[in-house]
Amino acid sequence: MLLDIIFFICMYPVNFILYFVYKSFGKMENMRKKGIYYGLHAPKEEELREAFLALAEEQEALFLRRMRWCLLATFWIPFVNLLIPSVSIDFTIWMLWFVGFLGLLMVPYLCAHKVLRAWKREHVVVVSEEQRSSYTELHEVGKVRRVRPVLFLIPVAVSAAAAVSYTIGSRDSYAGAFSYLIILFAIITILFYLLALWMDQQKVLVISEDSNVNLNFARAKKNHWKNFWLFCAWCNTLLTVGFALLLGKTEVAVGSTVLVGGILYTMVLLAAALCTLKKLRALEEEYREKRTEELTPDDDEHWLWGIIYYNKQDKHSMVEARVGIGTAMNLATPIGKIMNLLAAVAILSIPIFCLWMILEEFTPIQLMIEDKVLVAEHLDKDYEIPVGDITELELITERPKMSKNSGTAMDTLYKGNFHITYGSDCEVFLNPQNDYFITFVAEDTLYYMSAAEDAGTLTLYESLQKIVENQ
After folding, report:
1. Containing domain of residue 389, as a range?
2. Mean per-residue pLDDT, 391-399
3. Is residue 121 included in any domain, yes or no?
4. Is residue 204 part of a domain?
5. pLDDT in tens, 230-239
6. Lowest-pLDDT range, 23-37, 48-62, 408-422?
7. Which partner from 82, 258, 308, 446 sits 20 to 30 angstroms from 45, CA to CA?
């Protein structure tokens, strides 16, 4: 139930926001701003242009109707999860729904693009690469920069200081695992600066014959992106400092702290991204009448579905996106290929992670004694504890309240390092649905364990008790 609450707060609204964003991309009034309709340039010849726009208007009606059907076909699926007790199955459905919904939202656009592209190939002569004109803004070229290193120096320095102080500070034995998390977020602050610097160095977009219009448009656009990345850097710094102050303290539940912090962090960055997109859209509208459409080359052949840009002749890694607001990556460049590979890895990791969660939940735990060594085995051998090191052995029927620091916390499996409410940390390997649990201390570490079922736990406890007594 907690997983569903989190996803309904964080993920469910995002998809509806994306639905309305995608829907706006297929409206004629928005596409006229760039003179690009469903990822394709309108022909410049008057007669062909009128026929093309008439067909685009027909596709707009179909597009909006298909978008509504996509929403109606999928909006109810997450509610099915409320009836599913399995955490891993619940998570898998959420992930498949999220990815599937995003893919389904593209179908109406792709259908319209396919029809218009077929019409254009039939009626419009394809312009050769030699005949295709491209324009570069030479006035004050390279001088339109809005990102200053000093603006990002403070958040980067604060994040780094928080990570270093936490890592070298005096902490308990589990601080090492937390330090990796804090260092990771400190590195993300640096990445935000690098992304801001990278986008700031992209070429000035030619939208008008007037160089002042091009330069003013570039300054305003780059300024919006600079403010966004700077805001992200500061949010990430606050999260890094917060984790450095809280994680590792015995009175703080690490799992809950990371979960709540991650949710708030995601929601704030999402709000900032939507605000930035709104400002960019307003900027596009402001410069709409100042655009000179004839300056935009008809390079449809370099765009797959009007979304993915691949042009070996263009050495720029980023260009203006044809669909929506923002930029698109040139996948023909080295950095474009790297980003494409990372995106593929990220997409493929989703089903792999879902499969791992299913195996985690449905593989029964095993607790046994082998050669006077207590072995706790799940997907792998998680613990091997010499029975001779065990002290304070006890069989309990009431498990203390605890929350996960690291590891797994499912309805049928607790495994890893946990924090006892108003207590200390402990190592856990048990089925939380059982009635009997074994607790003991080994090498100054507190353990709570059980077999898959109560009968196995009781049998194991008797065996452990005999060995411990005879030592």
Report:
1. 366-470
2. 90
3. no
4. no
5. 999 999 999 9
6. 23-37
7. 308
In a domain, 159, yes or no: no
pTM score, whole prediction: 0.68
* Residue 264 resides in a domain: no
Counting the structural domains of the chain, the total is 1
Q: Are 44 and 294 in contact (CB under 8 A)?
A: yes
Percent of the chain at pLDDT exceeding 90: 15
Q: What's the pLDDT tens digit per position in 13-35?
A: 877 877 887 888 788 877 776 77
What's the mean pLDDT when you consider all of the chain?
A: 81
